[in-house]
């Protein structure tokens, strides 16, 4: 088997989609590629889909997904996470390394890659751990993971910060040889100690919850961009959450330092105020921040300082999440609502046009992760990876309808704009009429 889809799939003629907001046109998908674009007569064997009012975007790419397999198949599996991704319009996800066992060997990476291929709903690209067992002490087999059939290009100890500057330097030097990238969970463990469960500020004080300050993120971002400059290597800042981190990244990019960054849908929309509910659904790392940070993140995503939206989809079983706020696990779901959130907070007010959305959710993440067949423009001869999205209409999110095995969905009960109608992975409809085709 190869990543290239070998299953027979029908030809599809998508009629009258708004192609990246540039106006209505038809798209003919056949043999896994976009065969025609413009005004097309239906070939006899093609399934015709009326896409009037739908926008066509390249298939979304998530730089930051937790699939939980192996080890926590009660929270998510490659199959259920892939289904959630397809339902959200994704055609590729990067699966974080904090599984059990940790993805820190070539064999472990190949195993996850193979599970993804067997599901066939999205391309699953394992992220390799930076350090063995995420212990922060010894580098993992970065080169072997890269040279394996999983072709790992992104390395991260996500969930933990690579705190040792000497190890971070060595990791950056090492991956430079094959143009891979280190994705950092920027959280100084001394400034954000074991008790910290939310943003440190006036509200955390009032609620009596121990918080962690924005500077715990910012000092690591600042250190890492200097290490990236020193090593002339690529660092990626996972889930940026503060205005100060944005300032540092903006400065670093202006110096020509090879830094990229992502922001999550939840950090673009939700604020610290939700702490007042004491609902552990809203417990996440990095924590939800006050509104001025949310505004800075939106501006940075719009002007390209932040390159990509990444979900940090972090499923947790009920018995890990349903505790008092202080004891509950960190993390929330994100794959299924990411595009709706971006439409709601970034597109509808004109901040990001559809080409901008396509860049931040598909083109840029594919480039950062070095995925050749993803994030491509919608053009003739390109792989037929795309999503059809109905941008109009309001939807009240029902967390119980999720493809995910977990229910820690921060969007449950909220009103968002738009809906994914169909997703195509190399010409195969993984989602049609909003239903996943497993
Ligand atoms: N985001 C989270 O709050 N949790 C993530 C780890 C992480 O992304 O840091 C998880 O694995 O659950
Ligand atoms: Zn993280
Ligand atoms: Zn994460």
Overall spatial form: globular
Integer tally of domains? 1
Q: Runs with pLDDT <50, length 5+? A: 1-6
- Through-space gap between termini: 18 Å
Please describe the topology of this protein.
Blueprint: E1 12-19, E2 24-30, E3 33-38, E4 47-50, E5 55-58, E6 60-65, H1 78-87, E7 90-95, H2 106-119, E8 123-126, H3 142-147, E9 154-155, H4 165-176, E10 181-184, E11 198-199, H5 202-207, E12 211-212, H6 214-231, E13 234-237, H7 243-254, E14 259-263, H8 265-269, H9 291-303, E15 308-309, H10 318-321, H11 338-347, H12 354-368, E16 386-396, E17 415-425, E18 428-432, E19 435-436
Parallel strand pairs: 1-4, 1-5, 6-7, 7-8, 9-10, 10-13, 11-12, 13-14, 14-15
Antiparallel strand pairs: 1-2, 2-3, 5-16, 16-17, 17-18, 18-19
This protein binds N-carbamoyl-L-aspartate (NCD) and zinc ion (2 copies).
Can you tag this structure with a few keywords?
single chain, 438 residues, alpha/beta, TIM Barrel, nine-stranded mixed sheet, five-stranded parallel sheet, globular, disordered N terminus, binds N-carbamoyl-L-aspartate, binds zinc ion, pyrimidine biosynthesis, zinc ion binding
